[in-house]
Amino acid sequence: MRILRQAYESLQWAARAHAKWDLEVSTNIVSSRKKLVILALLAMPILLVSVGVAADMQLPDILGGKKAYSPAFYTTEIFLVSIAIGVCAGLITGCIGAGGGFIITPALMSAGIKGILAVGTDLFHIFAKAIMGTAVHKKLGNVSVALAVAFLVGSGAGVLGGGVLNRLIYEANPVASDTFISVIYVVLLGFLGTYALIDFLRLRKMGSGVDAHGGGGSGGGGLPAKLQKASIPPMISFDEDLVPGGKKISGWFVAVCGAIVGFMAAIMGVGGGFLTFPMFVYILGVSSFTTVGTDILQIIFTAGFASISQYAIYGFIFYTLAMGMLLGSLIGIQIGALTTKLVPGIYIRGFYALAILAGFVNRLFALPGKLGDMKLIEIERTTAGLLATIGNWAFFVVIGAFAVWVIGTFVMRARELREE
Fold first, then answer.
1. Of 332, 158, 112, which Cα lies nearest the Cα of 256?
2. How far apart are CA 369 and CA 388, in angstroms?
3. Which residues contact 176 (CB under 8 A, 6 or more apart)?
């Protein structure tokens, strides 16, 4: 139980650090007129084509077709749904400072998007946001170049492995692909949601004056010391500014961690930040100071390499959804961050736990139907459909209620924010 608790706390700390970066990136985009103009120019063709589709305009098979490897099919409703999903993910990220990205792939799959398209699209959305929003940041000065290179070599290999595995499963059986991705999210969200709920119940007993974002993590321990003592060339030096003479560790250990992050990022459609932090701090013994800068780089390269090399060139990116989610998340994350100044953090943490558990229930209830389609279990189609519907309603009602509550609070108490 103690090990599971430590794992949860390290993942939460990592998610908070990643959300902080996400907020900085979004703020960088929103505060720049030039970047907003670029966004408007990118969104305009999508809106025009959406109107054309709504008017029953005939599009060629490769653009707007429903055929395999032609994932550009969309309507105005799909575009609006993608914006709504982006807003909800942004609200969670901005309010709690953690976990918003975990709901995107389940939300897209619940909306009827195939799992492999949801993964590729989410990765591309992360990459696009990182490229637009990441300026020459002072934190990049904290990066150990050798550490970053070894990590990125490993993450590149991991991305290739995860991307190839996802595509092979999809080409063999599209239903098996959705099942595979759903199982991964069931395990992850079930673990995070359970501990988030326990954490909320524990903190509620302490009173309502709890910070929504929680505390941070700390490194150190036996494993980092053992790995740093192993002299396996090439050795990499890091944290020279924090420790006299710096620390050293084998590049092979760093590359292995990078491979795990890249593999999971390519399979789940996430940037990998939720794994980078605990691995660097708790396994490699890297300071959080250096880890932050390195993670900024790894998100850009890992998400970019995965989305382009493993999904875009094979037609597994839904650009309409990616643009909609980008627009929505820019709005949601700003509103969410401001709302934390208006409401007690304990309530926000409670909603976060419910949101993660709703995603868990959503993917869990979708599994019986998919396993039935694969002939692995016997289940009536009506029963499987009912379970999937219950899972979808549970998910969207919880997320929707959270969004309405946050936006409502923001609008009703906007005067307080202006006064501050």
1. 158
2. 7
3. 169, 170, 374
pLDDT band at 272 (very low <50, low <70, confident <90, very high): low
> In sequence order, what are the residues at sequence separation of 6 or more whose Cβ sits closer than 8 angstroms to the Cβ of residue 230?
250, 253
pTM more than 0.85: no
Residue 404 CA, chain-centre distance (Å), reads: 22
What contacts 261, CB < 8 A, 6 or more positions away? 151, 154, 155, 158, 272, 275, 276, 279, 298, 302
Q: Would the pLDDT of 218 be above 60?
A: no
- CA angle, residues 221, 227, 229, in degrees to nearest 5: 100
Torsion angle of the four alpha carbons 120, 269, 100, 135, in this order, in degrees rounded to the nearest 10: -80
Q: What is the pLDDT of residues 121-169, one digit of tens each?
A: 888 888 887 776 554 444 445 567 788 888 889 999 999 999 999 999 9
In this prediction, residues 274-291 reach a mean pLDDT of 74
- Taking residue 353's Cβ as centre, other Cβ atoms within 10 Å add up to 21
Q: What angle do CA 172, 176, 182 make, to 5 degrees?
A: 145
Q: What is the pLDDT of residue 1?
A: 64
Q: What is the rounded average pLDDT of the residues 314-339?
A: 83
H-type helices in 55-114, by residue range? 76-96, 104-110
Residue type, 140: L
Phi then psi dihedrals of residue 2, to 5 deg: -65, -40
Q: Write down the domain spans for the chain.
A: 2-419
Burial string for 276-314 (b: 16+ CB within 10 Å, else e) reads bbbbbbbbbbbbbebbbbbbbbbbbbbbbbbbeebbbeb
- Nearest C-alpha neighbor of 20 from the set 207, 240, 288, 266: 288
Exposed, middle or buried: residue 54 (CB in 10 Å: 0-12, 13-18, 19+)?
exposed
Q: What is the mean pLDDT of residues 355-383?
A: 89
| Nearest residue to 249 (alpha-carbon basis) of 259, 241, 239 | 239
Handedness of CA 324, 326, 331, 332 (dihedral sign): positive
Phi then psi for residue 236, to 5 deg, are -115, 135
Mean pLDDT of the chain: 76
What is the pLDDT at residue 387? 92
**CA quadruple 133, 348, 81, 13: dihedral positive or negative?**
positive
